[in-house]
Write a structure and sequence with these properties.
It is a single chain. The chain has about 190 residues and is mostly beta strands. The chain has two domains: about 45 residues; about 130 residues. The protein has an eight-stranded antiparallel barrel. A two-stranded antiparallel sheet has the order 1-2. The longest helix has 25 residues.
Length: about 190
């Protein structure tokens, strides 16, 4: 055991330590060094603890969920979509990802659609994403921009910048109907969901 000096300090492993401070509020070099070392270890340990709490779920999980949508535009005027969204979701680098296929019917006031769509990131990204759809459309009643009782087939793109709200643009060709009708249809609408 090291010998105690008259001033109340003793030497231990080359560091000057105070044996009995009494009521004095004086810190030695060894105490300051210890405090700094402890603080550095805490700072080094915090990021690894926070990182350890974030679990990366990289295994895809399958899901089948109902799909809905409300849209206003040409040629259907107003319409409501109902269908199923089938796909998988996973997490990578702290973000959610999904890959889905949607099948839906969309009756409207002036036309109706049946579509099969590939949906990317429409889930878990604050409702942002896009879809590419193959669509069959049949006009009836008093549609906008086309005559009634004409069937169209083609492709559509849906974009959701945020909260599943955004435009849908389609290019469709008439497959059945009177010969005097225009053969190509550029459809455009705005809405929420599919």
């Amino acid at each position: 055991m090291p010998a105690l000096r008259r001033d109340g300090y003793f030497l231990l492993m080359g560091l000057k330590l105070r044996a009995n401070r009494g009521n004095a509020n004086v810190r030695t070099r060894a105490e300051l060094l210890f405090d700094r070392a402890f603080f550095a270890l805490v700072l080094i340990g915090i990021p690894s603890t926070v990182h350890a709490q974030r679990v990366e779920d990289t295994l895809p999980r399958s899901h089948v969920v109902p799909a809905f949508g409300l849209r206003v535009g040409a040629p259907q005027k107003a319409s409501a979509a109902l269908g199923l969204l089938l796909g998988e979701e996973w997490q990578k680098n702290g973000r959610e990802h999904s890959r889905n296929v949607a099948v839906f019917l969309e009756p409207g006031l002036g036309a109706g659609r049946a579509s099969v769509a590939y949906v990317e990131n429409g889930y878990g990204s604050f409702g942002s994403g896009f879809a590419v759809a193959a669509t069959a459309l049949r006009s009836w009643g008093e549609p906008w921009t086309v005559k009634p009782h004409v069937t169209y087939a083609g492709g559509e793109g849906i974009l959701w910048p945020i909260l599943f709200v955004g435009p849908r643009i389609g290019l469709l060709r008439a497959t059945r109907g009177p010969r005097n009708d225009k053969r190509w249809l550029l459809s455009f609408d705005l809405g929420i969901g599919l």
